[in-house]
Amino acid sequence: xxxxxxxxxxxxxxxxxxxxxxxxxxxxxxxxxxxxxxxxxxxxxxxxxxxxxxxxxxxxxxxxxxxxxxxxxxxxxxxxxxxxxxxxxxxxxxxxxxxxxxxxxxxxxxxxxxxxxxxxxxxxxxxxxxxxxxxxxxxxxxxxxxxxxxxxxxxxxxxxxxxxxxxx
Length: 168
What we know:
This protein has ten helices and no strands. By secondary structure, it is mostly helical. It folds into two domains: 2-114, Orthogonal Bundle (434 Repressor (Amino-terminal Domain)); 120-166, no CATH class.
């Protein structure tokens, strides 16, 4: 997850988390590597996007896109922005995904996690529900829920439990 959110290889994320510093690299190299990372990790189904599709989406020629994807060329600002949008990088992150120093990129990705850990347990609707109704555990399968989804599940479960308690 952190690798996906930062554009950093897993080994680099692990090294940074263990306190090591990232090797210095110039901004053009960083941008080229992160564009390639997007190309390698943001797939069209189970395969990489066709460079012609990318070219049409960002307003560039397929030849230019192939050079960018081969790390032989650095995209200009307009193409870099269009590439981040094409590959689904969060709008608030945008070009920072491509340009941020490795430690800054990791810090950005860790901030939401740290904020969730700093919130009191009462702010977690599932924990509050479990506490209020004396539940020991809840099983969940699939992908992690967003905070909005967690709140919706907590409301639904609370309504079901309250309804069952009213009928007992």
